[in-house]
Write a structure and sequence with these properties.
alpha+beta; 7 helices; 17 strands; globular
Length: 332
């Protein structure tokens, strides 16, 4: 496995139930929905990918090419989740709709058995550049069939955003399936061969500079891993409040082969004081496995119709970045 494949590992284990119920990749894999209840969506998948691409291009990233092999892998996994009423990046052999335990092989994951076809391989997407490839997956479970809403919620969920806005991904595939009122949306990302997009020392930000009508919050408890968990003691018991609705995350992204080092990353309303944030980058957050992205998550919901200034200082690929600032304005 390449270093870049490994840096996406935590993203492959992230999952989201947008605006619905708490769930995650560690959820149980029981409760089978009859195949007769499974309804394919003809629009959700395409609309979701269109939304991702629109946001990527707005911040200067290339459009993802839709790949039919990745479509097959993503649709198969959405079907599996809908049939088994589960949100997970893993499948269990013998369950309805099984197409492979893992999306791709990860040596550090004992659930991914060497020699057994991965879901990517089963769909015909085979990496031909050993040591120079990457893949990722984001999944969600939502009420309703809007692909744009599902994609928007995934971008709000910061660990998912790290995948969606990875500059070096070139290909994507999407799938959606519904069981009852629930829609399971899957997007698979991949690149066969690591080609720099932004280049050494360069990065993009989100929300982008001067963006307007930015979302004010997201519900951290609905993302796995939880980007703002409750404080815990040595036994894992919560020792303080567990924030649910928190401020909208602010992030910076470089090529997967780059390294971002943070000296300071702050947010404040223009003319006001810095707000309390949680820092998400590799040096301080074990769940942030990638070294090519960093984010802050405000503790409180952002104020309505307010201009904010984000400011970052540090290094990207060893190149100093001093007081890089940008502004955006929240919606109502």
């Amino acid at each position: 496995m390449s270093r870049t494949s490994r840096i996406f590992r935590h993203l492959l284990l992230a999952s989201l139930a947008a605006g619905l119920v708490a769930c995650g990749g560690s959820g149980t894999d029981d409760g089978v929905t009859s195949a007769s209840v499974l309804v394919q969506s003809s629009d959700t998948a395409a609309d979701g990918l269109d939304f991702f691409n629109a946001q990527r291009m707005a911040i200067g990233l290339p459009e993802l090419a839709r790949d039919p092999r990745l479509d097959e892998a993503a649709q198969g996994h959405s079907d599996y989740q809908a049939l088994n009423a589960v949100v997970s990046h893993y499948q269990v052999e013998g369950k309805p709709g099984f197409t492979g335990v893992c999306l791709g092989y990860k040596a550090a994951d004992d659930r991914c058995v060497p020699g057994e076809p991965t879901r990517l391989e089963a769909a015909g997407y085979v990496f031909t550049h050993p040591g120079s490839y990457a893949y990722g997956e984001v999944i969600s479970k939502t009420a309703g069939t809007s692909g744009a809403d599902a994609a928007d919620a995934l971008i709000a969920a910061i660990y998912h955003r790290f995948v969606i806005f990875e500059p070096m991904f070139r290909d994507a595939g999407v799938g959606a399936a519904s069981a009852g009122a629930m829609t399971y949306f899957t997007t698979n990302f991949a690149t066969d061969g690591l080609v720099p997009v932004l280049g050494k020392g360069n990065f993009i930000v989100y929300p982008r500079d001067r963006q307007v009508n930015v979302r004010r919050s997201f519900r951290s408890n609905q993302e796995r891993p939880d980007p703002w968990p409750c404080p815990q003691d040595a036994t894992g018991k919560c020792t303080g409040p567990d924030p649910d609705e928190v401020g909208y995350p602010i992030s910076i992204h470089a090529d997967a082969t780059s390294v971002i080092e943070v000296d300071s990353f702050t947010l404040r309303p223009v003319g006001g004081s810095s707000v309390e944030v949680r820092n998400l980058w590799r040096a301080v957050d074990p769940a942030t496995s990638t070294r090519s992205a960093a984010a802050i998550v405000p503790r409180l919901v952002l104020a309505p119709n307010t201009q904010y200034e984000a400011r970052f200082s540090g290094r990207v690929d060893g190149i100093a970045v001093t007081n890089h600032s940008w502004t955006f304005t929240t919606g109502p």
